[in-house]
What we know:
The chain has one domain. The protein is 67% helix and 3% strand. The protein is built from 14 helices and three strands.
Amino acid sequence: xxxxxxxxxxxxxxxxxAAETAAGAKxxxxxxxxxxxxxxxxxxxxxxxxxxxxxxxxYHPVTDPMLPxxxxxxxxxxxxxxxxxxxxxxxxxxxSAFLYGQSHSKRETSLFLLKRGAFLVLLEATxxxxxxxxxxxxxxxxxxxxxAIGLCMIALAGLIHLPRGWQVAxxxxxxxxxxxxxxxxxxxxxxxxxxxxxxxQRALFHFGGGVVVKTSYPVLxxxxxxxxxxxxGPWFGRGADPVARRRALLGWGAALLAGYVVLRLANVYGDxxxxxxxxxxxxxxxxxxxxxxxxxxxxxxxxxxxxxxxLAAFERLDEERPIAWLALLGGAPMFFYIVHLYVIxxxxxxxxxxFGLNKGAWFGFDNVASIWIAAALLVxxxxxxxRWFAQFKQRRRDLWWPRYL
Length: 405
């Protein structure tokens, strides 16, 4: 009788403890994942600004790396904000693949990466190219960031089977060492021009029937980035210590920024040299002018470092309203990406129809401030359908196709 009573008395307390533990674990998981989506949301914002620039400020072309002695400072620093986008997004793609693998086998994860990667390559060649050119068959097919992410996912499908130590070693070796390959520049006459144009050199390919393809995002460095993103997955895994995670994010983020400053000051490796101009502003711009196509070591170090610091900050600020807003925006990044491209193109043609071509062969804004104003209006308009789709994805986890957007 006593034993039964004792057990009966303990049951409610045990249930309460179990419920509290489950609630705590659920809250920790929500925080752990929301800061990832919030960082994607930041990337979406800066990406929208850059795409407005590419559309409405095209009469001021931007080189790679930028020319700090001649470019308008406002345009220079506007362009710099977008440099965070591709490195962070590719890194988070690797991290997301690890989190996907927590509830799936390695085989299932590899298969998903293969299918999703192939889907992104197809998306770039069709839907995305049409959005930029407004033609079903554009004069040049540009293979850009979505194509690169797709190929990186296909590569990661095999690389996830390496031991974690090898993943870190291979990813770091690619990111840190690929600039040693910069002197290798091949011509179309070389039998290796095709593969090199995909891996490390921007290339132009002429196929039969007038098909022209441009590889804007050589993928080798990005494979290193996605692999490192996957390798840090255990920081965010189930049961990971949030204090240790934030310490790792802050430590490695600061180390990457410090490493960038030291190596850039040395001016010996990792990107094209910078110069003292005698003017503080232009010298700073020269120091910050980095190569994106393909991304140099010194391009990746500070952008990934800032990304890690933002992940730590967003986790601490999880309850703040802006974090929830950004997380909703980053909860459906591919949906946002596609919709915002078509909205930009529609706005451009509406402006041409209304005002005509006011900048030679283009319609364009008169100043950089207009880019930011237009981007703010664009994001506001696209936010609402993106929020709807992000919430739809959360509600309908039983459907397979929303995972691809």
